[in-house]
Amino acid sequence: MPSPFFLQGHEIHIWKIDLADLRWDSMSHVLSTDEQVIETRVSDVHKRQRRGRIALRLLLARYTAGNPLMLRFRYGPFGKPELTDGSVHFNLAHSEDSCLLAICPMALGVDLEWMGKQGLNVEELSSSIFHLCDKKEFALLQADERLRYF
Fold it and tell me: What is the CA radius of gyration of the chain?
């Protein structure tokens, strides 16, 4: 069994997962019966969802010192999954072939945006999601620097 990962205090661990990596497919045995239904679908979106769930189970098992297949989830009113035992909190975000998984001892959120998306308005998004300090710093940037900063 791989060594466990530990969270200290209010640490947040963020994992970037490559959903285009075909090696995830060889680990589908860690999926629950419900999650394996995703495996029968063939679209790229479903393949990425499946790979994200495999990564989620494998990484959460390292934090809970458990078997990835034995992890149990419940779903909140907006469909957000959480571990039934509440041992760690996590949030998963997908965009194209990438996924971010944030793990922490308390509830949290993470977001990921594909920067190649046409019509992405970083000024509008920054005003609604940035902390006040980040908004001030963002406003001082030249227009051509804002997308990279975002």
Answer: 17
DSSP letter for each residue of 40-89: T--SHHHHHHHHHHHHHHHHHHHHHTS-GGG--EEE-TTS-EEETT-SSE
Is the confidence at residue 73, as pLDDT, over 60?
A: yes
104 pairs with which residues across the strands? 89
Residues 6+ apart with CB under 8 A from 135: 126, 127
Q: Taking residues 8-18, report their average pLDDT.
A: 94
Going from the C-alpha of 99 to that of each of 10, 19, 25, 143, 145, the distances in angstroms are 22, 7, 15, 28, 25
CA angle 71, 86, 76 (to 5 degrees): 90
* pLDDT class of 64 with cuts at 50, 70, 90: very high
CB burial of residue 117 (10 Å; 0-12, 13-18, 19+): exposed
